[in-house]
Amino acid sequence: MIYIHLLILEVSDMKKKDLYSLILHPDYRFLETFVRSIPERFENEGETIYTGRNLIKVFDVEGLKINVKRYKVPIYINRLVYTFLRKSKAYRAYYYADRLKQLGVDTPAPIASLCFNKRGLLHRCFFISVQLEHANTLYEGYKLPEDKRKALFTDLGRYTAQLHEKGIYHKDYSPGNILYDAKNHFYLVDINRMQFDASISLKKGCKNFARLWGKANEILPPIAEGYARERGFDYEKCLRSMEKEHEFFWKSYERKKKHPAPFISQ
User: Structural domain boundaries of the chain?
Assistant: First the structure.
């Protein structure tokens, strides 16, 4: 039985006609004042570590490094969806992180989810977690010497097989969302798109690697070796399936973006 650790607090500001919902992990109740102050502090404080569709900053609070992700305000139709039909990305990031931790899968410890409504619709959301230190994204793994790179990707195949055996399927399994440390221990991030209790066949499992950068003949054989061995699958079938899914994904990417896959020029 999985129990999600939620301390749900809601505060309505009738003067501004806004509503914000705060979900705070009980272990981090001492950070409530900081979490509530994030909207006012985010613009001018903290160290920016990622700028893109979303913005990520790191804050030092009471000796603890805290990662704060501010999601882009959704387009109007998605504001309707997230208000009435589906949980926000911040909520799902919190919920999935807590669930992964309880399943023995490492991910930065969730602290809080903070969302604001504007004119009755979801507007701005933040996901707050403990900053993970001493870990690299998989992008860094591509730069390793050949023997260490091969070992890393073999371990990645084995690790992913263990996730799949637990019914865990990361639907955005890309290099920026997979972190590893010096001992090839892996961590999942950007986890608001997850599937749990999934039945994962050889084909579906191999498709999970399609978004990984790199030339297929360099990265897929060691991945297939680790994955097939861990799940008891045939290596050749795994490798052919991975190659097929990888080629399909990146050819589709090139047609859609009208430029080569990013790793081609590396």
Answer: 7-130, 136-256
